[in-house]
Amino acid sequence: MLQIDCPFCGPRAEIEFRCGGEAHIARPLKPEDASDETWRDYLFQRKSPKGVHFERWVHSHGCGRWFNAARDTVTDRFLAIYPMGEKAPSIEELKARLPDVGSPRHAYAENRVAPERVEGERP
Amino acid sequence: MSQSCRTPEGGRVDRAKPIRFTFDGKSYQGCVGDTLASALLANGVHLVGRSFKYHRPRGIVAAGSEEPNALVQVEMGGGRSDPNTRATVVELFDGLNAESQNRNPSLERDVGAVNDALSPLFPAGFYYKTFKWPASAWHKVYEPRIREAAGLGKAPTEGDPDRYLHRHVHCEVLVVGAGPAGLAAALAAGRSGARVILVDENPELGGSLLMESGTLGRVEPGNLAFARRAAADLAAMPEVRVLTRTTLTGYYDYNYLTALERVTDHLPPGSGPDLPRQRLWRIRARRVVIATGAIERPLVFVGNDRPGVMLASAGRAYLNRWGVLPGRDVLVFTNNDSAYAAAIDLARAGAKVTLADVRPHAGALASEAEAAGVALRPRTVVVDTDGRLRVQRAYLSEIDGEGRIVGALGQPLPCDCLLMSGGWNPNVSLHSQARGLLVFDDSLAAFVPGEAPQPNVSVGACNGDLSFKGALEGGAEAGRLAAGAEAKPGEAFGANEPEAAPLLPLWLVPSDREGLRAKAFVDFQNDVTAKDLGVALTEGLRSIEHIKRFTTTGMGTDQGKTSNVNALAIVAAKLNTSVPAVGTTTFRQPYVPATFGAMVGHSKGPLFDVVRKTPIHDWAEAEGAVFEDVGTWKRAWYFPKAGEDMHAAVRRECKAVRETCGLFDASTLGKIDVQGPDARAFLNRIYTNAWMKLPVGQCRYGLMLRDDGMVMDDGVTACLKDDRFHMTTTTGGAPRVLAWLEEWLQTEWPDLKVYCTSVTEEWATMALNGPNAREVLAPLVEGIDMDADAFPHMHWRSGKVAGVPARIFRISFTGETGFEVNVPAGYGRHVWGAIWASGQKHGIVAYGTETMHVLRAEKGYVIVGQDTDGTVTPHDLGMSWIVKKQGDFVGRRGLERPDLKRDDRKQLVGLLTEDPDLVLDEGAQIVADPSEPVPMTMIGHVTSSYDSPDLGRSFALALVAGGKTRKGQTLHVPQLDGSVAAVSVVDPVFLDPEGKRLHG
Ligand SMILES: [Zn+2]
């Protein structure tokens, strides 16, 4: 059972969480203008990489908050945890961090709040 | 003394406390401190089982949990029956009753042994090839016969009377194994003040020290004295928890581990009434020190499976730890030094000992062995053995430097015990379970731990260091570092031991015995021979994982603890490659067999899951309601009167609701308080219909879709204030819907200011339905004009009912005039009672979920999850009226996908059977042409089906391909009983299509 570092509650057992699948799937802003292919991709097309994967998690049996995480699917290690709406760290950056990742909570070290929403950009 | 093989002194048993036990119906005497295995050996009993496939007589091979052969059924009566228990770990208690397995009628005379004589017919993979045809014979003939003949213990049939517990703990350092390395680690970590847990399988601490006489070495201040002092020191440390009789069963991610503690297994049943039988510890450790020792390897030679053939270390353990002489004429057969200690100790205890060493030069302990009277036979191998129920004779041959037999063939040597040692396998199971890599060590001819991706370290013998000095020093350093303590010079541990000479791997001992009956076993438990591995290769299998599954080597209760490396090496030799090139199979949890009871813990019976009861539950129970489970709720299903079955009760309830009135407990409906300045805009995006203009005081039915356009949930939502709404959901969907709303708010629309709170259990909800509903309710109401025009359908009002603040929603799921009275849950029972009393003169009935289902189906109201299954759109349900034309909502674009606009999608219809008394099976498939050959074209299925007293006949709802255009057609529904029912397709609204009754 994984241990997941909830940015709001601290490290907790995996059973308290639910994985919400791949992160950074943008819902097209004007659905009525989206082609069938665009909508299909938004609904169904998901990556399943070997290595770094960006996912959404929710602390459903805890604070109930959603957050993003980068997880290595080979080792199941969490490489980063960062707020909803924030850009994903680059894979190069994460790989560079790999030897001494330590706690993935660094994204919250400055007590950051979710950034303002920018029109045209989706979390 | 009946214990004919018990030594006069020595060992950890209490000879002053003899106790009785029974094996296969025969009574024996053992001592306090014995295991079942040591007590049987003390009585000269080596034959304890029959093998899995060939039913060959088998004895005790090992002295610990790695035992492959000595599996027994411990049978204590009253539901206490444990199959496949290793006799080597069963602690003896007075009255213990055990039985051997896989024999008929008795161990000595087993009819299944014919399999051994026929063994040329039963090579590896035999089952897969022989029982292929005819297919129908597999279930009826082959499988039952095979299962009867092959197999292990008997599954218990009675319920388990014992209690099992789980405990969750955290620690900084978890030390696994309390041998010299583990003790040194726990002491060092404990002294730093860290929270430490030390677990060990044995009843006392010491590990290998408990069986070490000093021949192989001595730690200061003496092997047992060291263990005893360490135990006392650890007991005095407040942050150290020592768990004996506890096996580390599983190593999972993020240093999450499980350990199984056998709390009272060593006591007669009932002697610890306040204690559980077993306790499963669920541990999250910051660091783990693995000190699980090493397991000796058997040698693979012809006839190596006879009772009396055991591991050299086991023979030595039985002598030194349990005071049992496993044989008087002992042959030790080895390729390494460690077995010399067994030979020396047994010779000193009075046995006549010969030692055959495959190496040209005797080991470091040779002179000590000769001094003890051991006859040394260098460059000698065992080529065969004799003896039906116990080994009687071994045949020895000399080999040359290439491992070929030279000189005279198979010289017989009488023996009643044959101790073998093929070297040692570091016990890397936990390291490997933790996804650690393995590296092959040529000097040990075994796998040792490589890189460990989790924070753990292996020390001592499990890390390939077989010396006491290495175990003590490595353990202490690991313990200190794991605790995060400064690396100060360790406590000076003293250890004296002889330098070991290198071992000589001899994976498959040469033999002059040829032919199919010359069996050299690799895996005793699964009856896998060296030849079987060859068969697998001949069949073209190359991956070791395939070979494992084809031959079953390394499977079973012991998971190949003694056999795996031998199997790999023999495969490597046959493929002319190296052992690491063959690779290893995966080590899996649990390390030893674990009881289902321990895994389940308290989660059984009434504690299996949460049981939620409404405020009306006790009333319903007193009225004789029958309940059904809906999600975690108990809901009243129907209220039978004396002599009524479900059918009669539901007919009566239905009639009463349509003719006068009925009261229904709807408290389980999900209720979500949605508030905030953007609440209205939020509902407008979540539901398919329009919410921007719903006035305060009104309700609206809403349908929720997933973004792919499929119906997900539904319910009525009321506007309480301009920025506050009371949403209801299906009973089972409540948690899912709340999570869904939160997900959209947090991840997609963080700009919306909306808060959602579950208020399901805040409210008792009572649905009063029927033409007399108003007459029943009105006398109880204060502050609300109950007139039909003042309080119309789909409105809500707040006031008092029976003196209690209430919200009344004028909504209906029956098609009758309906009021849903919501009061704070604590007042629910009171208000229910008041309505019930007021309704008496109108002949009010209480009705349950079954009647509710019938009544709503008559009106064609769907139940999400019954009439839908996640592949149904609002259009499929004939509910296009609820899909707004303007603006986005969740599911809108999904509905426009081409596949969702097809005319031949499954659509909701009503069905009427030709026979009005026939109630169709729910879930039954629907076909257009009943004479079509199988496989028939299935065009739909029945979703709801009932008998209706109002319609005077049965009716059903169904999803049928192109259903909207099939009205009037006759279709056919095959029933479970084999008959085929003809049905005609009708509109899904069967009653009051104009909705007149709703507005009364
Ligand atoms: Zn949290």
Describe the structure.
The complex is a heterodimer of chains A (123) and B (1000). By secondary structure, chain A is an alpha+beta fold. Chain A has a domain at 3-88: Folate-binding fold, CATH 3.30.2270. In chain A, 13% of the residues lie in helices and 26% in strands. Chain A has helices at residues 36-44, 91-97, and strands at residues 3-6, 10-13, 18-22, 52-58, 66-72, 78-82. In chain A, the strands form 2 sheets. In chain A, strands 3-4-5-6 form a 4-stranded antiparallel β-sheet, covered by helices on one side. Chain A has a two-stranded antiparallel ribbon with strand order 1-2. Chain A is globular, with a radius of gyration of 15 Å. The model of chain A is unreliable at 99-123 (pLDDT under 50). Chain B is an alpha+beta fold and 1000 residues long. Among the domains of chain B are: 14-126, 2Fe-2S iron-sulphur cluster binding domain, sarcosine oxidase, alpha subunit, N-terminal domain (Ubiquitin-like (UB roll), Roll); 164-294 and 425-496, FAD/NAD(P)-binding domain; 298-422, FAD/NAD(P)-binding domain; 510-586, Arc Repressor Mutant, subunit A (Orthogonal Bundle), CATH 1.10.10; 902-1000, Aminomethyltransferase beta-barrel domains (Elongation Factor Tu (Ef-tu), domain 3). Chain B is 21% helix and 28% strand. In chain B, the strands form 13 sheets. In chain B, strands 8, 9, 11, 12, 13, 14 and 27 form a 7-stranded mixed β-sheet that branches. In chain B, helix 5 packs parallel to helix 11 (468-482). The radius of gyration of chain B is 38 Å and the shape is elongated. The model of chain B has no long low-confidence stretch (mean pLDDT 93). At the A-B interface, helix 1 of A face helix 20 and helix 24 of B. The complex binds zinc ion. Zinc ion is lined by residues 6, 8-9, 59, 62-63, 65 of chain A.
